[in-house]
Amino acid sequence: MSRSTLKTTAIRLSSASALAVTVLTSVVASPASASTLTDGISATARAENGNGACAHGGYLGGPNQTSSCYGGTTTAHAWCADFAGWVWARNGVTGLSTLDDRAASFMDYGKKYGTLSSTPHVGDAVVFNYNGSDYADHVALVTGISGGVITITGGNQGGRPGHVSTNTATNYSVGSAPWGGQRISGYISPAGTSTPTLPNPTTLPAGTLVKSPNGPDVKVMINGAGIPVAASDVTPDKYDLSKIVLVDDTAFRSLPSAPPAGTVVHDQAGGAERYVIVDGTALLIGAEDWTAAGYNVRADMGVPTAWLQNAAQRNLTTGIVVMDQTGTDPGRYVIVNGAALHISASEWTADDYNTQTLMGVPGQWLKSAVAKSVPTGTVLMDQSGTDPNRYVMIAGAAVHISASEWTGNGYDKQSLMGVPGEWLASTVSKQVANGSIVKDASGANSTVYVMAGGVAVPLTYADFTGFGYDKRSLLGAPGEYLASAAAKAAPADGTMLLSPDSNTVWQIQGGKKKAMTADQFGEGKLSFNDVISVPTAFTAKFPTV
Hints:
- This protein is α+β, with helices and mostly antiparallel strands.
- The chain is built from 13 helices and 32 strands.
- The strands form 8 sheets. Strands 3-8-4-5-6-7 form a 6-stranded antiparallel beta sheet.
- The longest helix has 11 residues, at 36-46.
- It is elongated, with a radius of gyration of 34 Å.
- Residues 1-34 have low confidence and may be disordered.
């Protein structure tokens, strides 16, 4: 086996007896090796930086070594040899029955297999203060050699109970004592590798914890997917890290990160909520859907808490076509930025929605998605192309974008969403929500407006702050639309207005205003939350009924 070597100098590293060391948060030297085995040893060791004795349920290497962890705490013996043996074992090093919990057992290994040397190589074990017989103070692993610098990674470093750390030095000759007493006794190379065949994780039962030998990440298998297990999940989700199965690295890294569509899941830590996975998103299953949609007859899989919380906050991908899994609602819908838009029967085929995979979703979830408005700022077009115009969503309404504004306002730089034409026509006919605060998206007009019954009412700065509108989001709108809305004669009938000159609430009727009475408001009646504050001059121009 070819190895990278360096001329001798000294090294800086920590031992079980060292009181203080310099620990690098990032490795300075790159590993210099020409061997899959030694590169693997280096990568495996470095991936453990910062871990304590009970990482992965404890480090356990050769058959005659004991775990570095027992009952959740560090065992009585020093665990530097356990860590080094564990790294070698993860990379298929042969002859590990020679090793035990003593750092000196690595010297025994080197003598037995003829791999003891005064020259370091990447992947070597380095032993300190060997007494020539049966004892040594410490053992670690060489994980890099480059440009006159050696990098060493070891377990049980930094004082008891110790941790895994990586350190560098420029002097590492055998016999040198970088820490006043911790003398380097020799370097021991692996005798070879058995190149172990590790299982493909997809062949393992659901709920199995898996890990690649080349990294610290742990996943739990759920229907062929590898769901990441966060550190915060281990205790509440009751994951037993002593039962981790080492699996093939390539297969581990290629695992899907979400279960297949239709998988029913719950929080491994507990709770009554159940979810169905669709497009990597966790959709809450309502009580009325549990049996009606047939979710109750599917396997119910526990998944890591952190992953589920994140998946439940995602939106389905725009363009996914969905239906009510129960069949109660016969409609078909397309998802656009979290909202479900109805597809008419004629559009189902004409717009090619029928060529897409139709995903069943919980009925209660679908109702809430149908009730959502496409977010402000979303740029839209008719999916069929019948209407050639472009629109931008502003507070529940689709507002026309003129040709000059398409590029002038930068709308052409945004994603253009195709939507069902019938839904688009109905949304174009809607008014921008009352109380929305808008301004010209181009910046050509600095006036700020409040929307009232389809009219853009101009505000002075005193109005803007005095009415509390400075606490609301300021929405950019096409300037041509704003000019048109500001020029309207009167708000739509039923619009309720309040001006600072009096406490009277006025309701617009046929271009006139009518004073409202207190008994018109209350539970089951009109709400004061729907009253729009406008400047006195705006209400003054309407005659009183």
